[in-house]
Amino acid sequence: MDHSLLATLTAAFLVWEALLLIPMVPGKLVDTRDFSSLPRWQYNGFNAYLTSLGLASFVVAGFAMAGRHWVFVAALVLSLGYAAVFAADLGAVFPVVPDRLPVQLLVLEVIALASAGVGAVIAIQGMRL
């Protein structure tokens, strides 16, 4: 594949993952679970991590469109970050709360986890060039 096509795909993946993440913010639109059982620092730290992941995705996507070669490494790290978040939630590792995972959130997380895998493959392919 051409480097510029891989860079464009990387940017599109990163924007896609960040946009998928937006409605899944804990306690908001789709994720309606009650997080009051978590210590405040865990809840705030988790939200800060999710926010940083999303913002970093937009920044790296911009650099990908500018043709920077290092974006593939950053995209791989971000892909693994997304995969870790969604796998941990789907696997009931973190966050663990008494409420069940809403069906809409389950569907979005499965889609996001699968696309994080695709994003990792794209990033690895870009690093090979």
Output the radius of gyration: 15 Å
What is the overall silhouette? elongated
Task: Look at the helices and sheets and give the structural class.
Answer: mainly alpha
Average pLDDT confidence is 93
Number of helices: 4
Helix content: over 70%
Q: Into which percentage range does the β-strand content fall?
A: under 5%
Q: Element order, helices and strands?
A: HHHH
- Count the beta strands: 0
Q: How far apart are the first and last residues' alpha carbons, in Å?
A: 9 Å
Largest sheet, described in full? none
Contiguous low-pLDDT stretches (5 residues minimum) are none
Topology readout:
Blueprint: H1 3-21, H2 40-65, H3 71-90, H4 103-128
Helix pairs in contact: 1-2, 1-3, 1-4, 2-3, 3-4
Structural description of this entry:
This protein has helices at residues 3-21, 40-65, 71-90, 103-128. With 129 residues, the protein is an all-alpha fold. The termini are close together. The model has no long low-confidence stretch (mean pLDDT 93).
Short key terms for the protein model shown above:
129 residues, mainly alpha, 4 helices
In short:
It contains 4 helices and no strands.
